[in-house]
Specification:
This protein has 253 residues and is mainly beta. The chain is built from one helix and 19 strands. This is IPT/TIG domain-containing protein.
């Protein structure tokens, strides 16, 4: 009798909507990232560039080495626009404008990233690239929602970036309910239980940052206790939403 292997604790099934794309409507030096709202059908690819690296040792068989990777993607976006100005949303304006220009003006600066419905985002599933744009109207019927089909072709390789996702708009301010086990010394790990931990940028023991920490989920952080004296210390978690109220913890000797 066969059985289905169990998954590790804390495992969840990914969802198709768990990706984000931002358009830089600022400058390269001072980016102003605007999320592409009402997006669907995100389909990134990283086409390879190969070179023949075959030698006599391959005895006539082909051998192609991957010398580079490009970036390309396609997606759809609804054509929402202002009833006052007539303009599309800023990110859609940037896409449309680039698709009708040439030279540098035909390029846009984009970043993409994993943005889960719950739990911690994948820390390295994110990148940034300059890209050229092609746009077509997807729906052309007599009574359909106006939707643009967009294709981006990267210029050169994309740049891996730290995942910038900090949670959905309803991500709460951080709060700590427990820090376990008690009396850990410097270099040992503690588990911080609470809420609103997505996108955490720091974990502090008093005024000293944790030696290392991992955001396991919106409710759990594993942190390494930094150097410091034994006794009472206030633990806080810092996120883009704010800093948690202090949690009293007793360090070991």
């Amino acid at each position: 009798m066969s059985t289905t292997p169990s998954l590790p604790a804390g495992t969840t099934l990914g969802q198709s909507f768990e990706y984000g794309l931002d358009i830089n409507i600022g400058t390269a030096g001072a980016p102003n990232w605007q999320n592409v709202r009402r997006m669907s059908a995100w389909a990134p690819t990283f086409p390879k560039v190969t070179q023949d690296d075959s030698t006599y040792d391959d005895r006539g068989a082909p051998s192609e080495g991957v010398s580079g990777r490009g970036f390309a993607t396609s997606f759809t976006v609804q054509a929402n626009r202002s009833t006052i100005t007539g303009l599309y949303l800023p990110e859609v304006e940037a896409i449309i404008n680039a698709s009708r220009r040439k030279g540098v003006a035909a390029e846009i600066d984009v970043r993409f990233y994993h943005k889960p419905n719950s739990g911690a985002p994948h820390p390295t599933d994110a990148g940034r690239s300059r890209a050229t744009v092609e746009v077509t109207r997807q729906n052309t019927g007599n009574a359909e929602i106006d939707v643009f089909a967009v294709s981006l072709t990267g210029k050169g390789e994309y740049t891996p970036i730290a995942n910038p996702w900090t949670g959905w708009d309803d991500n709460p301010a951080p709060s700590i309910a427990a820090v376990t086990p008690a009396a850990q010394i410097a270099g040992k790990q503690v588990t911080i239980i609470g809420d609103g931990f997505l996108g955490a940028t720091d974990v502090k023991f008093g005024a000293t940052s944790a030696s290392a920490f991992t955001v396991v989920s919106a409710t759990t952080i594993v942190a390494t206790v930094p150097a410091g004296a034994a006794g009472n210390v206030n633990v806080t978690v810092v996120t883009p939403v704010g800093t948690s109220p202090i949690f009293a913890y007793t360090r070991g000797a």
